Amino acid sequence: MSDPTVSGVLAVRAQILARSQTLNRLTPPEVTPGAVSTVPRTEAPATFGDTLKSIVGKVNAAQEAEDVATERYERGETTDIATVALMQNRASISFEATLQVRNKLLSAYKDIMSMPLG
Questions:
Q1: What secondary structure letter does DSSP report for 7?
Q2: What is the mean pLDDT of the chain?
Q3: Cβ contacts of 56 within 8 Å, gap of 6 or more
Q4: How crowded is the C-beta side of 16, counted as CA atoms within 13 Å?
Q5: Residue 4 domain-assigned?
Q6: Is the pLDDT of residue 88 over 50?
């Protein structure tokens, strides 16, 4: 005999995984925060500041999209909690990664500034 609760949980898990895979296929690579582009670059390389602005912009866009999805779910406009949870996790992970990069940059800056001259 199989437990109906366990089979129900497994069915929900399978639905969440299927939706996650579908969402990953539908999301364009250039919109995904932290995605690495495989398209060869033809323009001049960007400066460090431009690259940093671009990354922060992508993280901000992911957080804004997550806010919109969460608000739509809270208003009852959508019932797909798996997509909302996935967007929340993506926004959270991209923000945490950006925060860690910032911390490493600050640490490197402090190390460089404390180096003796001479």
A1: H
A2: 80
A3: 98
A4: 12
A5: no
A6: yes
